[in-house]
Design goal:
With about 80 residues, this protein is mostly helical. The chain has two helices and two strands, in the order αββα. A two-stranded antiparallel ribbon has the order 1-2.
């Protein structure tokens, strides 16, 4: 069972981390393409649909991409238009 936290330290190999991300991405794609938007799964607090899961993942991806934009902007001063 994987820990729900994702902690990275100096000893972690970036290539291995990237491969782990790609593997999880592929697993998620397989699950999403084999399910209907109305299929349900048990979430820790309630039952949720595939539709809810995908919208949640879009929200989380956008949020973290925004965080990355802020870090990049603080680093190099450039802004996106």
């Amino acid at each position: 069972v994987h820990d729900s936290e994702f902690d990275v330290d100096d000893s972690d190999d970036p290539d291995q981390l990237l491969q782990m991300y790609r593997d999880q991405w592929a697993t998620s794609n397989r699950i999403a393409t084999s399910a209907s938007l109305d299929d349900v799964s048990q979430h820790p607090e309630r039952e949720v649909s595939m539709r809810w899961i995908l919208v949640h993942m879009i929200e989380e991806t956008a949020r973290h991409a925004g965080h990355a934009d802020i870090l990049r902007e603080l680093t190099d001063g450039s802004t996106g238009e």
